[in-house]
Amino acid sequence: MEGIQIRSVFVLFCITVAVAVADSVTREEAKQLRDEVGDMFYHAFNGYMDHAFPLDELRPLSCAGEDTLGGYALTLIDSLDTLALLGDRQRFATSVEWIAKNLRFDINKTVSLFETTIRVLGGLLSAHLIASDYATGMRVPLYDNQLLNLAEDLARRLLPAFDTPTGIPFGSVNLLHGVDQHESKITSTAGGGTLTLEFGVLSRLTNDPIFEQVTKNAVRGLWARRSKLNLVGAHINVFTGEWTQKDAGIGTSIDSFYEYLLKAHLLFGDEEYLYIFQEAYAAAMRYLFHDPWYVEVNMDSAAIVWPLFNSLQAFWPGLQVLAGDVNPAIRTHAAFLSVWRRYGFTPEGFNLASLSVQHGQKSYPLRPELIESTYWLYKATRDPRYLDAGRDMVASLQYGTRCPCGYCHISDVEHHKQEDHMESFFLAETVKYLWLLFDLAVGPDNLVENGPYKYIFSTEGHLLPATPQISLVREHCLYYGAYCRSGDLRQTYFAPESDKDKKESNDTIFYESWSKATHSSDYTTFEPSAVSGLIKGFCPGLNHGQKFGILYAHLTDESHDYEANQVQQIESTTVQSQSVLVLRDDSSDYLQPDNSNDHNDSQTHESGITP
Asked: Residues in the active site (predicted)?
């Protein structure tokens, strides 16, 4: 009954919210809007360079700077691939050269593992891949892998965070001294599960598997502790594996965990991530989706705990486009957009029961998520309504957030009160997705749409290309040879699976080659199936645990009684998860989904990688 009442309120809200009526965006207007968005970028970028550089971020009202993350020119690093996307060779080359000569990470700073990975590590890797490759048209003269070397140095300083019994990392780490003995043992699901793209790319570029191993192990550690409903909570103890906040949702503290499951599969071709994503996505749609909205529920009982739209949920329709599930994405995007149009922005929280801004969550910190989903839906459908939405967003940003030296946070969306701060992601994501949206309407001429590679966007909007070295590791190794070093421990990374033995490093385990059932203190494992081929529809076949060997972890807290119910959990996983039947196909070394399950093949765009 509660679900019916909530749904009726949702639908009523969607119907009653006023929507601005305007003529559709023409091709000429789209060109003008694209140019306007470019001017927005340079207003903010020049403001940062003139008044804040080399501090981390700009204070756009007072025209000053502040160190917010680590004190290493954060906004410049976060902006590098946007400069390249806009075709600004001079500023891109100058910025790369400055960073190569001046940036250092041997500093006594405690930083967020999550934010440092997605903003700094991702920014360095994306810029390196552009600056080092003639095919991008942005090759920097005399560039000699300096950004890659910096990225590797940074990642090695982050590795101590992963030294936990569960493999799930601490949330913070000191770049000089490692993890402080008093560091909190509580981390978010997104914080532990949104590291695979950046660390995985680094492993492939450096030929060192450790970076990918520890981040994949973190994902496994989180997934092994999911509920019997295949839901994960928001916060977890990295030592005991016990959930300290059991609210399951697609927004705050969890959002990009789902995002990186699918994107890691798309970029690396790793079918284990696809298996986890399919089961996690099916559970989210079953228990969290109240068409067209999403709520937060208890991960064990699915009882609703928060009938709340929070702004970080707005990435979800874009992720659904990548997954090929476009119809619910369209409906959900329309609901989220109605909130934007009501206030001019999306507040951090909007209460779906009272139809009002959630107390204490009235701000809009220039977030890109709704704009990102607008771009992906226009790319999938070419429906002009998304250009109209983009036009409204540009107007809101220009008239509500523009300030003397950049763009300001909005501290209260009901009164449009400005706040003296500009996050680096405004340049890395917000204006990037707006520019791509209108450039696509004009007839795209940019690195993403017309470049030499297909690209995956990181959760920070950084461009990660599907080059052979990144996406076809074994094939690249066999063809070029140079990446298979004899007598080097790293060689095991590129060895065929049939030649791998069980190896452990830094509490990281290679599960794929286990040959018999094993029972450890952390995981109950089963012999994985060494089958590759084509996914043919959805049916009660192999689930993730049967395929890859991880089902549920044992918790040390006996009050949860997981050990006593282990057999029931295993059986229920097979019934409740959305599984796939894998058929042998020796001609194929990857998995391709059959889109017969309400997926429109014309709307997926090569499984979500940009053409």
From this structure: 115, 255, 348, 369
pLDDT digits 0-9 by tens, 516-546: 223 333 333 323 222 222 222 333 455 666 5
Q: Kindly report the CA angle at 212 between 211 and 218, in degrees rounded to 5?
A: 100
**Annotated catalytic residue: which of 348, 420, 460, 522?**
348
Render pLDDT for 478-522 as a digit per residue (tens, 0 to 9): 444 443 443 333 333 333 333 333 333 333 222 222 222 233 333
CA contacts within 13 A on the Cβ side of 81? 34
| 28 belongs to the catalytic site | no
- Can you state the percent helix, strand and coil of the chain, rounding each to 5? 50, 15, 40
Tell me, yes or no, if 259 is annotated catalytic: no
* Predicted local confidence at residue 474, as pLDDT: 61
Instruction: Give the active site residue among 255, 271, 279, 392.
Output: 255
pLDDT under 50: residue ranges of the chain = 1-21, 478-540, 556-611
Nearest one of 152, 197, 277 to 471, comparing CA atoms = 197
The token pair at 443 is 């007839």
Contact 113, 191 (CB under 8 A): yes
DSSP 8-state assignment for residue 563: T
Euclidean distance between CA atoms 270 and 426, whole angstroms: 31
The angle at the Cα of 422, spanning 418 to 425, to the nearest 5 degrees, equals 135
- The reply to whether 198 belongs to the active site is no
Q: Is 606 a catalytic residue?
A: no
Is residue 187 a known part of a binding site? no
What is the spatial distance between Cα 584 and Cα 587, in angstroms, rounded to a whole number? 9
Q: Position of tokens 């060494």?
A: 530
Cβ neighbourhood burial of 334 (10 Å; 0-12, 13-18, 19+): middle
CA-CA distances (angstroms) from residue 101 to 81, 92, 104, 139, 517? 18, 14, 9, 17, 52
| Measured distance between the N- and C-terminal CA atoms of the chain, rounded to whole angstroms | 45
Q: Which of 208, 242, 279, 369 is catalytic?
A: 369
* Tokens standing for residue 214: 């520890």
Q: What are phi and psi of 18, to 5 degrees?
A: -70, 135
Chain CA centroid to CA 18, Å: 32
3-state secondary structure 354-421: CCEECCCCCCECCCCHHHHHHHHHHHHHCCCHHHHHHHHHHHHHHHHHEECCEECEEEECCCCEEECC
